[in-house]
């Protein structure tokens, strides 16, 4: 069994031209960790442009890219990432987890 992560661009939400799927994860946990790092990377890229947590959240949901997979609560993760900045590169390195290098 293989697990997947659906990714896309909030600026063009649900536009099939702006969505893609990352497949081949060996477990739900692996897919969820990829999604966590992907979202955290997006938020960290926007963090320096926001004046507040509320502004950062608005920017993410307007201009960021999302990742969704089974069993992953992305809304709660977004709130966590906004409140707790990444402190190590590994927290945002989703490419390291891509099963399709």
Please provide a written account of the structure:
With 101 residues, the protein is an alpha+beta fold. It has one domain. 41% of the residues lie in helices and 18% in strands. The protein is built from three helices and three strands, in the order E-E-H-H-E-H. Strands 2-1-3 form a three-stranded antiparallel beta sheet. Helix 1 (28-47) crosses helix 2 (53-63) and helix 1 (28-47) crosses helix 3 (74-83). The radius of gyration is 13 Å and the shape is globular. The relative contact order is 0.23.
Instruction: Give the N-terminus to C-terminus distance in angstroms.
Output: 19 Å
How many separate domains make up the residues?
1
Largest sheet: 3 strands, antiparallel
Helix content: 40-55%
Which blocks of ≥5 consecutive residues have pLDDT under 50? none
Overall mean pLDDT:
95
* Order of secondary-structure elements: EEHHEH
Using the alpha-carbon principal axes, give the shape.
globular
Strand content: 15-25%
- The number of helical elements comes to 3
Indicate the radius of gyration in whole angstroms.
Answer: 13 Å
Q: Look at the helices and sheets and give the structural class.
A: alpha+beta
